[in-house]
Hints:
Blueprint: H1 3-14, H2 23-40, H3 51-73, E1 77-80, E2 83-86, H4 92-105
Antiparallel strand pairs: 1-2
Helix pairs in contact: 1-2, 1-3, 2-3, 3-4
Amino acid sequence: MTLTERIFAQAKTLIRDLEEKDFAMLELLCRASENALKAKLRNGIQVEDCIADFVAAASLFAVAAMSELDEMAQMEQITAGDLTLRRKSTDAAGCCLRYQAELLMSPYMQDPFAFVGV
């Protein structure tokens, strides 16, 4: 099983009610999460050094992205006569998942801050 397949399998487990039509999008997001995490690994750290955390974090990032896409697709406003209903767009679940993924990978990641001379 490839790394992407492992990430995709775990992401499908996290999203229990995923429809088959959404599998291609989730797989794309898994691949993107995998590549983004690989690019941020500290020098000398390989995926194999943190495989369990890497798979978990990549799948959490993919699920968070999927959640954000679902949030964007939902209705923002309904107006019926003098009554207007608005839905504030906050994806707390996506933010929480992203935060958990960042915590998992923080020991393996490059320092996100860089100081540049002025």
